[in-house]
Amino acid sequence: MLFINYTGTMILTTKSQFQPLIFTDTNGEYIAHYSLWSLRSVFQPIYGHNNVLVGLEALVRIEDVNGESIRPDLFFSSTNISIKDKINIDKLSRVIHIRNFAVSEYKNLKLFLNILPSVSEYFALSDINTCLLSNRLHELQIDRSQIVMEIVELNANNEYLFVEAIKRLSEAGYCIAIDDFGACASTIERVKSIRPDIIKLDRDLLLEHVSGESTRLIEGIKMARSIGSKIIVEGIETKEHLDAMKMLDLDMFQGFYLATPQPIRSRIKNAV
């Protein structure tokens, strides 16, 4: 397996920098190798009412040089990995996600892409209309409105730049989502500052609700409706979870009970 080691302080920004890091595997899916890690895409379906498939969330799978899997949340929260490497892994993940999505039969749906707050800050300092992401979407005939930028629950390095970047992404035609609302930095304050198109309710709110404590879930739903955001509930793992959520005023549903994350070309059809 080939690994390309970047030892400088370079943040990947151009096509010529990304291209040597991207390969295809035996299934024809795009993968990437960067420094000590390899990356691949899996996708989890998101459903609307009547089990209609409305979009896919792209998730990265990270392995080290020994082939050992690393949980993405642990990778991005680790103090042993530089911010430069975290940003490059985050950006490189989206590159392979978009490529895999573009060659699939699902490319007419919405694509949910996780984004670190620290990475989103770069959009505040760049021309979004001419950046590599926008150019690549145009080349692949994917409309910006199909892309949902899903802001993960980590803290921003610079709150002002973070909010400014999200506003610019929204103005450029991208959809904005808050991931895991109710967990860590995905707070009411963050929602009010960026007013996302979509709010994804954290799994803990679902679990609290089915155990009899519904306060946080109901407050989250009311807040989303007050600012016009659509609502996705995450973490549906049983029929009981699904039945309970369908009794509420929600728009979309996601979880292992409905479909597990799978490579988009080889196995996702079976999951759907």
Distance between the termini: 32 Å
Q: Number of helix segments? A: 11
Low-confidence stretches: 1-8
Number of strands: 11
Strand content: 15-25%
- The general outline is globular
How would a crystallographer describe the biggest sheet?
Answer: 11 strands, mixed
Series of H and E elements: HEEEEEHHEHHEHEHEHHEHEH
**Average pLDDT score:** 85
Could you name the key traits of this structure?
disordered N terminus; 272 residues; 11-stranded mixed beta sheet
Textual characterization of the structure:
The protein has about 270 residues and is α/β, with parallel strands linked by helices. The protein contains eleven helices and eleven strands. Strands 1, 2, 3, 4, 5, 6, 7, 8, 9, 10 and 11 form an eleven-stranded mixed sheet that branches.
